[in-house]
Design goal:
Residues 3-459 form the Aldehyde dehydrogenase domain. It holds the Pfam family Aldedh. Belongs to the aldehyde dehydrogenase family. With 467 residues, the chain is an alpha/beta fold. It has two domains: 4-235 and 439-459, 3-Layer(aba) Sandwich (Aldehyde Dehydrogenase, Chain A, domain 1), CATH 3.40.605.10; 239-421, 3-Layer(aba) Sandwich (Aldehyde Dehydrogenase, Chain A, domain 2). Helix content is 42%, strand content 19%. It is built from 16 helices and 19 strands. The protein has helices at 22-39, 44-60, 62-73, 77-101, 109-114, 141-152, 166-178, 196-201, 214-227, 249-261, 278-294, 313-328, 362-365, 381-389, 404-413, 446-451; strands at 4-7, 12-16, 119-126, 129-133, 156-160, 186-188, 205-211, 230-234, 239-243, 271-277, 332-335, 352-355, 372-378, 393-394, 398-400, 420-421, 436-437, 440-441, 454-461. The chain has a seven-stranded mixed beta sheet, sandwiched between helices. A six-stranded mixed beta sheet has the order 6-5-4-7-8-18, sandwiched between helices. Strand 4 (129-133), helix 6 and strand 5 form a beta-alpha-beta unit. Helix 4 runs parallel beside helix 6 (141-152). The longest helix is centred in the N-terminal third of the chain and has 25 residues, at 77-101.
């Protein structure tokens, strides 16, 4: 894929970029290594001052960077502004909390004595240069939720962003520079996917984090494993949205629409499989389908738009292939399943609801990265749990129930990194985020996330000298 800004609303190529050559990559690696040697010694107060300054600048830039994101990958402009605001919030949260999250830990006096020590502490020290390989769907947020904790921990970052959001990637480097960070603390590398292996194998790179597809995660994990370097992976998701009889059906249906079409349906944590108890299936389906049909599809620069184009032409083709396969195996279309009329220039796809899904269909196993919902009918909580877990992914999950026994059952048995009751999955800086199974491993955000790229160091002092 060329490194270029291509407007998905009309297919127009607006700007192209040459990838960095080997000499420039080497210069940036050397700069990052040099920056880490000094930046790692800064105190939390200085790191917080710099990150708060970056947050202030991002807040001032909110309108402009929102337009850049929408131009590059098609998210509705209102959602782009909200993404920028969320990044500001996360940066300030880490600036405020990092020192406490990384405070030295002190084992109990009894355990210190039993370890044969006079004193013992656990310290969290930065690892070094961290490579971040990031996707286009949340081009600002995905990076900031790595960047903010990494910088507050004393690490430095190298960003290999998706090739279709180069201007957003360059903005992030410039934001850190304008905030006053030392040179090399955070750099954007405009390179193709083929350059990742060489960068990751470089001994100056300590670890990597990747958010993206399962194949990309497998590749980065294999390379890092060969080099014995740590990785954090956040990969695909096919999150269940379970509706039980005690749920508020009208609220569930309204939330289900947002949960499915957020970011034009291109979100790993979007609800994708709607698993509904037979007692409320008809009522939920009627309300959910009607609201999906009412969504406004169109120019993402308009505030009234609910669903914009998919980010790439190939992305739309992939969604169409999944839908066509489902239909060929007997799925029923309740709405959508076509390109909207009057929007032929861009990569639009109508909000779609499919019923009659079986395990013979690709969409039952594969992630639909677009505004396509699949409906399932179940008869009891056992069937709901089994169907929710019948997926290679395990990122998050949504459950609508007021029955406390059902709540306990879903918490115990759902195979996912999160269980959200009577609401939709969302990320927040105070809550750990990540998945299980083929959705990846490790956690972002919260104290768990900031400690992922720290060296947890045990410090042991021998017995005090007698007398």
């Amino acid at each position: 894929m060329p490194i270029a800004t291509v407007n998905p609303a009309n297919g127009e190529t607006l700007k192209t970029f040459d990838p960095l050559g080997a000499e420039e990559i080497e210069r940036r690696l050397a700069t990052a290594e040099a920056a880490f040697r000094t930046y790692r010694t800064t105190d939390f107060a200085e790191r917080a001052r710099l990150l708060n300054r970056a947050a202030d600048l991002l807040e001032q830039d909110q309108q402009d960077i929102a337009r850049t994101m929408t131009t590059e990958m098609g998210k509705p402009i209102a959602a782009a502004r909200a993404e920028a605001a969320k990044c500001v919030k996360a940066m300030r949260w880490y600036a405020r909390n990092a020192e406490e999250l990384l405070a030295d830990e002190h084992p109990s006096p009894a355990d210190v004595k039993d370890a044969g020590a006079s004193r013992a502490t656990v310290h969290y020290r930065p690892l070094g240069v961290i490579l971040a390989v990031m996707p286009w769907n949340f081009p600002l947020w995905q990076v900031v939720r790595f960047m903010a904790p990494a910088l507050m921990a004393g690490n430095v970052g190298l960003l290999k962003h998706a090739s279709n959001v180069p201007q957003t990637a360059l903005y992030l480097e410039d934001l850190i520079r304008r905030a006053g960070y030392p040179e090399g603390c955070f750099q954007t590398l405009l390179v193709g996917a083929g350059a990742v292996e060489g960068i990751l194998r470089d001994p100056r790179v300590a670890a990597a984090t990747l958010t993206g597809s399962e194949p990309a995660g497998r590749s980065v994990a294999a390379i890092a494993g060969d080099e014995v370097k740590k990785t954090v992976l956040e990969l695909g998701g096919s999150d269940p949205f379970v509706v039980m009889p005690s749920a508020d059906i009208d609220q569930a249906a309204r939330t289900a629409v947002t949960a499915r079409v957020q970011n034009n349906g291109q979100s790993c944590i979007a609800a994708k499989r709607f698993i509904v108890h037979t007692d409320v299936y008809d009522a939920f389906t009627e309300r959910f389908t009607a609201r999906m049909q009412e969504l406004t599809v169109g120019d993402p620069m308009h505030d009234a738009t609910d669903v914009g184009p998919l980010a790439t032409e190939q992305g739309r083709a992939d969604v169409e292939a999944l839908v066509d396969d489902a239909l060929s195996h007997g799925a029923r279309v309740l709405c959508g399943a076509q390109r909207p009329e009057g929007l032929e220039q861009g990569w639009y796809y109508a909000p779609t609801v499919l019923a009659g899904i079986t395990d013979s269909m690709r969409i039952h196993r594969e992630e639909a990265f677009g505004p396509v919902a699949t409906l399932y009918r179940v008869t009891d909580v056992d069937e709901a749990v089994a169907l929710a877990n019948d997926s290679p992914f395990g990122l998050s999950s949504n459950v609508w129930t007021r029955d406390e026994a059902e709540v306990r059952r879903f918490v115990r048995d759902l195979e996912a990194g999160g269980v959200f009751f009577n609401g939709m999955t969302a990320s927040h800086p105070a809550l750990p985020f990540g998945g299980v199974k083929r959705s990846g491993y490790g956690r972002e955000l919260s104290g768990h996330g900031i400690r992922e790229f720290c060296n947890t160091t045990t410090v042991w002092h021998g017995p005090e000298k007698a007398g």
